[in-house]
Design goal:
The protein has helices at 18-37, 43-65, 70-97, 110-119, 124-127, 135-169. It has one domain (14-167): de novo design (two linked rop proteins) (Up-down Bundle). It has 176 residues and is mainly alpha-helical.
Length: 176
């Protein structure tokens, strides 16, 4: 703790966090997707890119701020999660409006994609796939990555919340 009572902890290496790596992959996927499938005059193009960028960048900023403020880290990670949720909805809307499939467990391509995403985090694991995939495949990949990022971030944030609660409970109590 510093002299002002703020928690100081070692800086997190955000680039080693699986949810950051997946968010970076999602950003690159989104960049490819909007270049190929969204027209330049469509506002959705900028909104999707900004949501993907915000999802990635707020992880970086949040983990950097977490050195001195766990509350700030939680706030920025929540902003990141919200951006990724917004992006996921854009991909779902894209599929629905074009009457393309939203893959679930009944689709034979869903489980292999899910397994691939579970085992691969690095952007280089995904970049080679982008030109080979059509809009339906890229959208479903983005949705799967979004779900995984959210789950991983929630687990990470729960650890922060537990740390905060343990720290607050360790202060001496005075009075009745």
């Amino acid at each position: 703790m510093d002299k002002n009572g703020k928690i100081i902890r070692p800086r997190s290496d955000w680039s080693s966090l699986f949810f950051y790596q997946k968010a970076q992959s999602l950003y690159l996927l989104t960049f490819e997707f909007v270049q190929r499938f969204i027209q330049n005059n469509d506002r959705t193009k900028d909104q999707m890119l900004q949501a993907a960028r915000s999802g990635k960048q707020n992880i970086v900023e949040g983990t950097a701020d977490g050195v001195t403020s766990l509350e700030m880290e939680l706030n920025l990670l929540n902003v990141s999660r919200a951006s990724i949720q917004e992006l996921k909805e854009d991909y779902l809307d894209y599929l629905c409006t074009r009457r393309l499939s939203i893959w679930d467990r009944n689709n034979p391509r869903y489980l292999p994609m899910l397994q691939y995403c579970r085992l691969h985090n690095q952007p280089t694991d995904y970049i080679a796939l982008f030109p080979k995939f059509n809009d339906e495949e890229l959208s479903n990949l983005a949705i799967t990555l979004s779900h995984q990022i959210d789950s991983l971030m929630q687990a990470y944030m729960n650890k922060i919340i537990n740390t905060l609660s343990q720290t607050r409970n360790s202060y001496p109590r005075f009075g009745g």
